[in-house]
Amino acid sequence: MSAECLRALGLWDEPRVLEPGKAGAGDPGVIVSENPATGRAIAAVRLDDAASYDACVAGAREAFLKWREVPAPVRGQVVRAIGDEVRRLKTPLGELVTLEVGKIRQEGLGEVQESIDIADFAVGLSRQLYGLTMPSERPCHRMFEQWLPLGPVGVISAFNFPNAVWAWNAMLAAVCGDTVVWKPSLLAPLTAIAGNRIADRVATQMGHPGVFRLVIGADDAVGERMVADRRLPLISATGSCRMGRRVGQVVAGRLGRCLLELGGNNAVIVDRSADLDLAARAILFAAVGTAGQRCTTTRRLIVHESVVEQLLPRLVGAYKQIRIGDPMDERNLVGPLINARAVDAFLAAVATAREQGGRVVIGGDRVRVPGLDGNFVEPTIVRAPPDRGLPIAHEETFAPILYVFTFKEVEQAVRMNNDVDQGLSSAIFTDSVRSAERFLAPAGSDCGIANVNIGTSGAEIGGAFGGEKDTGGGRESGSDSWKAYMRRQTCTVNYGAHLALAQGINFG
Ligand code: UN1
Q: What angle in degrees, to the nearest 10, is found between the helix axes of 105-125 and 90-101?
């Protein structure tokens, strides 16, 4: 399978992709991409250095000077053709995601669908980059705003959505008239090469080379240069809060623009009136899907004390039926964590939870899958001690651990929802209009995403995606997120023969 999807995507034709055995052992200019389900090498990838980074950004700048002059609907046609090509290659690309980052095949395909969806969205958007017209206070004056291309955009992406998050940025940036310099996670370089190759090949065939660019390198060689680079007016970065703080500070230091999509510590509130079957199914997907490695994963469950003894057994029953193993095997719902470090972080969090008085209801250990030397762990539920906090639940551990708390009044549940540093996604399960509306009111959830009777993960591309507080404040994907990729210009035209000053000033 490995060879098949790599071949279908043309990866062996890429000069920077090497057979794993052919890479010089210990060569610091090369990384090996490993399959997290088997621990085996898939291929080796040659890294960029300072010089190739520089050439890449210079090329992106040059391409930008031409691309910005292409009419937006024509840019949209290029994005449309890219979306069509991704549709054609959906299966191998989805399987490559599974192979390289270990998410189950259904989710690998779902991720590629998300990229197709945002391409479709961007095509429509290419005819809707609307500005406003304002009435001028002066006679014979017209005042309006227009949105203009911004420049080459730097995109930094994480391992867990190695195709879709780039697509959210790249497809919008492209219709907005920007070129893209993409620095993917070093844990998913092959998916990045495949995704960028499709976009670049299609755009080049249509006469627009150099719009989509890739730099693969370590943070010190490439990442730091990129965030400090004044040729990139916008840096859009997805990853940890620690990474985002660094990016935010450096970009602010050069007065650049940042779009930050950082950690989440998302909660589901289950109210006393909730449909518990619906809630249990949604919690299962949101807490266990992608082996708990989405930024939108449900990490905390806040349950009304009158229903917790009904809900928990249902969840435990469902957890017991989950099959863990090879993510390519469609019978499995949970694949591996990304690497051994993630397994260590999982085990450490479970141990800390125990020390802090948490009770492990199910799971808590690593899993040995016969025949596979992968990073598998058990989806885990930890019950917080009654009337005491569980400090570890304030941290985002990128693994399938769900901490369970109880509440008496919905206001208290909302306070608990908000009582973490991050503010990405949140949800309430309830059949009470009053509870649902309290959750959505100004004193309700403080997150960028607030759902009713839907889990915290699996957002559609049509809405703006992102969160508040330590999540970084950025919004990507749908709604009017495109505005981050353009510069706004306010224009006033005097078509009269007199110079009229605003604010009624009479100047001589
Ligand atoms: C992420 O985990 O970084 O809402 C993105 C979701 C997906 C995107 C997640 N559509 O879960």
A: 130
